[in-house]
Amino acid sequence: MYKDASTRKPITVTTLAKMKRDGEKFAVLTAYDASFAALLETAGVEVILVGDSLGMVIQGQRTTVPVTLEDMIYHTRLVARGCQTALVMADMPFASYPTVEQAVYSAARLMQEGGAQMVKLEGGGWLADTVRQLSRNGIPVCAHLGLLPQSIHKLGGYKVQGREEAAARQMIDEALALQDAGADVALVECIPAELAARLTEALAIPLIGIGAGPHCDAQVLVSYDMLGITQGHRPRFSKNFLTGCDSLQTAVETYVRTVKTGEFPSPEHCIA
Ligand code: KIV
Question: Domain range for residue 207?
Fold first, then answer.
């Protein structure tokens, strides 16, 4: 069903934009090292996110807040070495983009020293100037909206975002402002499926969802959650794809296939 990894073309922002236009869904997973990145790419994952979730799943921290730019550069470099064709997206960690200038500096390091091909940053309309300047500097950007794990101490917990109509409307307006500023991709975390459907419709750029229902253009999960490695709490919207599979490869292939067909996420993995 999928092209052999050696014959695949590299995934670029143009590929993702075309997939959105053609109504073809794509699969995203996190990786933090070369071996995992190669495995995900071989299984057909189009975008590999070096997430600051590494703070929890690799470093054993309670939140993503302690993750540093040096940590992100190190893990991005490992992932980039394992990839031939997947697009490598790296998280800008907590407090690495307080000003436009610092954002360009941090993103440039992730690209030059880490090998990232896109950076992701968490926030709303207040980041429009930052996104514009990154874009002008040739840096592809993913705008992360909805639940913002880096702001967990301000939010007071991991809560569903955009439930009220006013908050939903504001999220759509802010996503559009970030798109206008030059964002290439948007990502929403932990929002009602109905709001994600409205965002997918409103945005010309691809929308990646996590805990955001089946209507997004793409899905992302933390690989350690979807392979059952994470100990303790696993988010309700995640799923253990290793259950019933005989290898990691088959589990990831199942994830890719069910994202593309729209079977994942099913209603039990959605927020109403
Ligand atoms: O850090 C991460 O893994 C993420 C995903 C949860 C989207 O940002």
Answer: 5-269
pTM of the model as a whole: 0.97
Number of domains in the chain: 1
pLDDT tens-place string over residues 108-120 = 999 999 999 999 9
Q: Do 99 and 71 form a contact (C-beta atoms < 8 A)?
A: no
Tokens 């429009």 belong to 128
| CATH code of residue 59 | 3.20.20.60
Active-site residue, 189 included: yes
Across the range 27-44, mean pLDDT stands at 98
Which residue is closest in CA terms to ligand 1's atom 4?
51
Top mutation candidate among 28, 40, 49, 120 for ligand 1, by most atoms within 8 Å of CB:
49
Give residues (CB < 6 A) around ligand 1.
Answer: 30, 49, 51-53, 91, 187, 189, 210, 220, 222
Measured in Å, residue 56 CA sits from the centre of ligand 1 at 11
Q: What is the DSSP string of 194-242?
A: HHHHHHHHH-SS-EEEESS-TTSSEEEE-HHHHTT---S---TT---TT
The rounded percent of the chain whose pLDDT value lies above 70 is 98
